[in-house]
Specification:
Strand order of the largest sheet: 1-2-3-4-5-6-7-8
Mean pLDDT: 96
Structural class: alpha/beta
Order of helices and strands: EHHHEHEHEHEHEHEHHEHHH
Distance between the termini: 11 Å
Largest sheet: 8 strands, parallel
Number of strands: 8
Length: 308
């Protein structure tokens, strides 16, 4: 069973906004050594992004070989586009997709803790939209362990939910200091029962995440965006993943894609295949087992999310 714990559900994406999001897929393609045709990349993004009914999601899962996906909404209180009404609509729309596909999808709400009414928005997402957790992009400018965040984490923990929070540097205007994995340390103390997935595990800054995860039983991490180096710097990817697993344990590592954003530069089935092939294709001196591959691709997420 293949479980993707990090899929961005994008209910709508006006064409004028696509350009502002394409910069990262373009960077990814360059690292992967792929030829970039900006026009075709734009058309691919236009076709993949913007999915109010979830039809593109399910079609993609079927074609790419993903059995279950955790889909998330994202909120940014600094962006005037994200009005309260839009946040409510987005959470309802994403929640509806999960409710229509209960055997294949679960949803996480997007609520920025800096909003005065953030607790009410999150309670609404759980109680009325069927959400199962919360998605943070703290690099938009807030501390994931700050007082405003704690108001929301109390709600997530009370609902036995999951927090998926971005970690690792991104290009400006992302504020990387708020995406440092070490900022998650207090959650393990003040919310010991809260299940936390550090999206990307800090990427190149994975060691602070691993140091915490080796001591915090409920801190996990996903491999979203690691495909950039898996395809572009394969030996580096294998070496870091092997060191990470040896340090923190295989049970903390989850498969993630960052689709449909990343999907414009690589097929998801290729990312799955690369991980499946690690036991036979990893460089000399770096060894992965079939059991580790199964744990990463689904078994760990099944246990964490209670998929049964």
């Amino acid at each position: 069973m293949i479980v993707d714990v990090h899929y961005h559900m994008i209910p709508m994406m006006p064409e004028e906004m696509i350009e502002s999001v394409l910069h990262d897929p373009i960077r990814m393609a360059k690292v992967m050594g792929k030829e970039i045709d900006h026009a075709s990349l734009f058309e691919k993004a236009k076709a993949l992004w913007g999915d109010p009914e979830g039809d593109k999601l399910i079609k993609s899962m079927d074609e790419e070989g993903v059995d279950f996906a955790v889909i998330c909404a994202v909120d940014n209180a600094d962006n005037e586009v994200f009005t309260t009404e839009l946040v409510e609509w987005q959470n309802k729309t994403v929640g509806d997709v999960a409710r229509k596909n209960p055997g294949r999808v679960m949803a996480l709400a997007g609520v920025d803790p800096r909003r005065d009414n953030a607790p009410d928005l999150l309670k609404q997402a759980f109680d009325e939209c069927g959400m199962r957790g919360l998605k943070y992009h703290a690099d938009y400018g807030y501390d994931p362990c700050g007082p405003a965040s704690y108001r929301l984490l109390e709600i997530v923990q009370a609902h036995n939910g999951v927090l998926l929070t971005h970690t690792g540097p991104l290009p400006p205007p992302s504020r990387a200091k708020y995406a440092d994995p070490s900022l998650l340390a207090d959650i393990g103390v003040d919310f010991p029962d809260l299940k936390v997935i550090a999206a990307h595990m800090g990427m190149v800054n994975w060691r602070p995440w691993a140091a915490l995860a080796s001591h915090q039983p409920n801190l996990y991490g996903d491999l979203a965006m690691w495909d950039v180096y898996a395809f572009g710097r394969y030996e580096l990817f294998c070496r870091d993943l092997r060191d990470l697993i040896d340090f923190v344990g295989i049970e903390k590592v989850l498969f993630g894609t960052d689709d449909p954003i990343a999907q414009v530069v690589r097929p998801t089935r290729d990312w799955i295949a690369l991980i499946r092939d690690l036991p036979t294709k990893a460089p000399t001196g770096i060894r992965f087992t079939e059991q580790e591959v199964h744990a990463i691709l689904g078994r760990n997420a099944i246990s964490l999310l209670g998929l049964g």
